[in-house]
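Page 37, continued from 36.
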């Protein structure tokens, strides 16, 4: 059997048989894959708490005849507090839905790593609460468009200078500085955030026609 260790984030899970779990996993090496975790829901299982959505971990896998099977998990960050926080829970669900949409099985490793790392720093930003969830969402959407090659160098519409500077920050920043509050204030300031978010929403809707279920709830927040 082929064995492989990958880093990844669990996008979704579903029951498989009496005690098993079917896991939708975004990985750094294989893109999005389906993994089966036998006995994961059984009391006493060593992975019972490590197969929840949002979990970021190292996963030891073995390739069976038609699917990957999970052997062990080493959790990097569980993000377990996000679903319990009403202010950010739906935004976290939206991040997972975006990850599912923009990933696929067998995608190039470089693209898979870039998407995985972007999702990770976004979830960290939601956890840290230094920025508003709404701003984090729009930053993520623009950065995703950059990964897809569907972005514009300047905001659509009549964005002011502050919004343009914040736009450039999102496109050019390293991931470590992408959600840095100080750099964002320096780039666009409070006055530029609203215009930036409006422009990012316009471009994302224009470029991505898919309807995301989580966005219905976000519109009401």
């Amino acid at each position: 059997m082929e064995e492989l260790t990958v880093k990844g984030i669990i996008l979704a899970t579903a029951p498989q048989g009496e005690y098993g779990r079917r896991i939708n996993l975004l990985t750094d090496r294989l893109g999005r894959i389906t993994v089966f975790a036998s006995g994961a829901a059984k009391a006493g299982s060593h992975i019972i708490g490590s197969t929840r959505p949002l979990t970021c971990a190292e996963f030891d896998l073995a390739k069976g005849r038609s699917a990957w099977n999970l052997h062990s998990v080493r959790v990097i960050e569980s993000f377990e507090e996000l679903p319990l926080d009403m202010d950010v829970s739906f935004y976290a669900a939206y991040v997972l839905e975006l990850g599912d949409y923009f990933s696929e099985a067998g995608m190039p490793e470089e693209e898979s790593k870039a998407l995985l790392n972007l999702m990770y720093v976004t979830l960290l930003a939601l956890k840290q609460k230094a920025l508003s969830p709404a701003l984090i969402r729009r930053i993520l959407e623009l950065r995703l468009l950059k990964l897809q090659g569907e972005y514009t160098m300047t905001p659509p519409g009549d964005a002011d200078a502050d919004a343009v500077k914040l736009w450039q920050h999102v496109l050019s920043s390293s991931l470590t500085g992408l959600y840095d509050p100080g750099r964002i204030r320096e780039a666009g300031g409070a006055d530029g955030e609203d215009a930036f978010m409006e422009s990012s929403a316009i471009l994302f809707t224009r470029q991505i026609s898919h309807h995301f279920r989580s966005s219905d709830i976000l519109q009401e927040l």
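Residues 109-128 form the longest helix (20 residues). Flag for discussion at group meeting. The chain has eight helices and five strands.
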